[in-house]
Structures are given as C-alpha cells and as structure tokens.
C-alpha cells in the first residue's frame, strides 16, 4: 500500500505515527521542532488521511505499510515516535525490524489489550454525519454534537472532513475502523523483546498507561524509560508541546 506521507528536514530519520482518527498533521507540533535537526517522515496510516482504505487493519499491516514506505525511500535506519494507536504501530515496527529501529518513543499507550469500548460515542457521531448530505462543516459539527460533548474532540475529528464533488466526506474509513475496533484495542506481544532504546511518555491525567501495565512494558521493552508529563491528558504532545519536544530531543541525543 502506498501511504501518503510528508518528508521535512535533513539528517537522521524520525518517523511520526498518529493515532486513531488522526492524520500526519496531528503530530505537526513535534515535526516543526524536530525537522530542524532531523529528516521527519509524517505518515497517514491506511484508512486515515490521504492514504488508501482497506478492510485489512492489523498492527502488522500498519507497520508493514511503513516499512514499505521507508524501503521505497531507501531509508534503512530510523527513529520512530507514535502516539496512542500509532504507538502500538511503532511498537510493532520494533518487533518486525528491530535492527532498523534506533530509538522508540511511545506516547501514552501501553502494549496491552484495552477492555471496553472507549470510542462508541465517536463512531455514533461519525455515522450520524454519514447519514446526511453535508454541505457545510457547521452541519457536520451539529450532528457530531448529538453524541460528542467535548468541542475539542469535535474539532479534532472535523480536521478529517474533506470537501468533495458530492459534499463533505470523512477521509478515514469509518466502517473499516468500526469493523476492526477489537484489533485496534487489542495487542499480541512480540515473540522476542525489543532491546533497543525505548521511552514511554505518559500524560499525568490520562488512564492509557496505568501502574498495572508496568510488567507488560518491561517484559517487552526491558530497556524502557518512562517520563510522566505533569498536568496533561492523552494529548500531551499538543497540550505541552515544548516540554514533550524537549524530553524527546534529550532522549534522542543525550549529549546535546
């Protein structure tokens, strides 16, 4: 699959991987700083952004797409940073091609199966928009608001609402994501632990990385370090971008 991606800057390569319902632009605050010293590859995962849609949506599929993209660009060694679902893709990359991953940064997700349905209201809102012929973005937000109270979440989703010849349409594959939701929330530990340099970053107010996940993290990533960013939630890279960038830069280049 030919992923849509954006390449910026020069130097050693960093791959940025967004989370569920996102796109390459979601990690733009990280890319803006990192591209000053690195070549930054920001990808749209399949079923997101401008990348193709597919009914196949396993973490191995998502990671292989990125491997294929990097092979096409003749990039052998790289660092990888993934947020949320993108963090699980990044962890899968470290299992598939551990010899190619120099540094692994996982933002607010753990290598575990998450129980329950965390996004039912979002899917209900997306489907509600799809039931109507949308001619203005404000109409889409009104339909989303029937199910999603958080205005920030609505604005985040609306970034992936694109104008077409027949009206506004979601760029992500709504039904494909719903079908594969159990896979998205799931996890299959790698046969071998990743021994490379690894950093897990947690938003202090987020519940995606909990103390009971520590054993799973250390079993799969024995050399992992952890950093909690105070007074932030799941979107810590957007809430405190300067802090997150500083932590990542120090991790990538401790002598700087």
Describe this structure in words.
- The chain is α/β, with parallel strands linked by helices and 256 residues long.
- It has two domains: 5-114 and 188-252, Alpha/Beta hydrolase fold, catalytic domain (Rossmann fold); 120-179, no CATH class.
- It has helices at 28-34, 59-72, 85-96, 120-130, 137-145, 151-158, 174-179, 181-185, 214-220, 236-239, 241-252; strands spanning 5-8, 13-17, 39-43, 78-83, 101-107, 161-164, 167-170, 197-203, 224-229.
- The strands form two sheets. Strands 1-3-2-4-5-8-9 form a seven-stranded mixed β-sheet, sandwiched between helices. The protein has a two-stranded antiparallel sheet with strand order 6-7.
- Helix 9 links the parallel strand 8 (197-203) and strand 9 (224-229).
- The mean pLDDT is 95.
- Keywords: Hydrolase.
- GO terms for molecular function: hydrolase activity.
- This is Alpha/beta hydrolase.
Helices and strands in order:
Layout: E1 5-8, E2 13-17, H1 28-34, E3 39-43, H2 59-72, E4 78-83, H3 85-96, E5 101-107, H4 120-130, H5 137-145, H6 151-158, E6 161-164, E7 167-170, H7 174-179, H8 181-185, E8 197-203, H9 214-220, E9 224-229, H10 236-239, H11 241-252
Parallel strand pairs: 2-3, 2-4, 4-5, 5-8, 8-9
Antiparallel strand pairs: 1-3, 6-7
Protein name: Alpha/beta hydrolase
InterPro entries: AB_hydrolase_1, AB_hydrolase_fold, Epox_hydrolase-like
GO molecular function, one term: hydrolase activity
Summarize this structure briefly.
The chain contains eleven helices and nine strands. It has helices at residues 28-34, 59-72, 85-96, 120-130, 137-145, 151-158, 174-179, 181-185, 214-220, 236-239, 241-252, and strands at residues 5-8, 13-17, 39-43, 78-83, 101-107, 161-164, 167-170, 197-203, 224-229. It comes from Photobacterium iliopiscarium.
